């Protein structure tokens, strides 16, 4: 990151590749128009509140709980997605079986399906009298209308991110690397845990970051399954909407600003880790 | 360790890659599997390694039948053409990997592993680069790391699959010499695959020439070069000329003239005459010779190669002469006679 900042300061850097100025101009213009201006509006609004008032709004217990639930469930869901996304990608990359293409296409469904539809479908399934819920209720497991339900909804929407980022990198894995590990006496398990997975780490991290970010911002599917009980299963985006409907714009802005700061710092850290590992191992270099 | 391959047959989805191959590799020797692509040399190497399972036949390591042992159990060292290093590990960790993954009962202590890995890096002349990652090394350095990694497990046999194939000419030459030195120091039984005959001739104690899934000839570089047993080996190793001739009256005839080569014990009839471009003598008069017009002439290193048009639809004959000798010949009619040759029947 630091290196990149330094680079962009040298505008007159001579290069054999033409169009740097134009490309950078378009990039900045587009980012400003699409991302920066809306977010700046948010920043201006919340800075108008003043620090004390902003803090009071952000530290409201209901807000804190909503943030905790949002980030906590998104984190859990992203972890689950990493675990199962890797297995899914592995199966899709390594094995040939009938229906593989259909499964491959199914992975993308959460991208395309309206999230509300997903939320309603999942709620129906996991409700105490639903297809799956009816078996879980006797075991004392409640899914719908609890944070667990939120996690399930977020796993659903986040799945393609991990699979689609890991899959291409997995396809690039050289068969010889695995064979080399085997000739050196490594068992299958050691080959996977010490050679293959560490090699996938940067891609997995990207997938995790995307799934996590998606989870934090998810709204449509969650509000149906969550039950939206304040302090228990109410997510931050929903709280923002509730505040808006109450015409309590300052509170909505404050929550949004906190989410923004948290998300950005998390993504920034993940990006730093990635560029570090890229430099080290030479992935994509 | 001695390795014996007995009547190995390998098919890939009904397509035979090796037909009934038998080979005995002596303990401590450096042996080359040489052949064009598709000759089955890499398949044979991978069968010895256990990376492929034979369709039929047996492989022995010493007196042990290793045919159905897994790769891990065979304890071999394998070096791949494209290095196959673990790129998220440092050079030292790459070399130490084989020791680190051993079950705890056979695993040396951490300090010992470190020491052995450092020693090997010393041997391959890479000390000082322990902390580097593979992407920070040149191709030649990477291949040396790969070799150190393979030797770390004290393998029964070291198998190298076109180890220098991805390197440029100069590095390849240096590494070749260096590999020979390493081999002489460590004495590992080593099998390497190559399609580069020069590499095989220079490096190996013995050469196994392969073609179309079969072994054509096994022998020392001298035997392979001087007494090829088949037209394929003659053609594949070094330069050669092939001429359609006829054996009659205990002599070799080209078209309707004898060319001054005796063939006392040969059966009469059509035959193919093989000889090397440098195994010839120039004749002044021609009482039995091959004669032709110089069609082209090239300088190759210390000699001059002349291509002769000998007429009657025969292929161009190539001969090698010292440059000053070549300058003196009559280019419109050059006569010569092979001094060493071999007849093969079709």
Structural class of chain B: alpha+beta
Which segments of chain B are poorly predicted (pLDDT under 50) over 5 or more consecutive residues? none
Tell me the CATH architecture of chain A: Orthogonal Bundle
Quote the CATH topology of chain A. MetI-like fold
**Which oligomeric state applies?**
heterodimer
Distance between the termini of chain B: 40 Å
Strand line-up of the largest beta sheet of chain B:
6-7-8-3-9-10
- Report the top-level CATH class of chain A: Mainly Alpha
Alpha plus pi helix count of chain B: 10
- Biggest interface and residues each: A-B, 22 and 28 residues
Q: What helical percentage do the residues of chain A reach?
A: over 70%
Integer-rounded radius of gyration of chain B: 25 Å
Helices of chain A, by number, come to 14
- Domains of chain A, number: 1
Residue-averaged pLDDT of chain A: 87
* Number of strand elements of chain B: 20
**Percent range for β-strand residues of chain A:** under 5%
User: Topology as H/E string of chain A?
Assistant: HHHHHHHHHHHHHH
Structure commentary:
The complex is a heterodimer of chains A (285) and B (346). Chain A is mostly helical and 285 residues long. Helices cover 78% and strands 0% of the residues of chain A. Chain A has a single domain, classed as MetI-like fold (Orthogonal Bundle). Chain A contains 14 helices and no strands. The longest helix of chain A has 34 residues, at 61-94. With 346 residues, chain B is of the alpha+beta class. Helix content of chain B is 27%, strand content 34%. Chain B is built from 10 helices and 20 strands. In chain B, helix 3 crosses helix 4 and helix 3 runs parallel beside helix 5. Classes of the chains: A mainly alpha (285), B alpha+beta (346). Chain A binds chain B through residues 174, 176-177, 179-187, 190, 194-195, 198-199, 201, 280-282, 285, and chain B through 49, 51, 71-72, 75-78, 80, 82, 84-88, 97-98, 101-102, 133-136, 146, 149-150, 152-153.
Key structural traits:
heterodimer; A: 285 residues; mainly alpha; MetI-like fold; disordered N terminus; B: 346 residues; alpha+beta; six-stranded mixed beta sheet; five-stranded antiparallel beta sheet; 10 helices; 27% helix; 34% strand; elongated
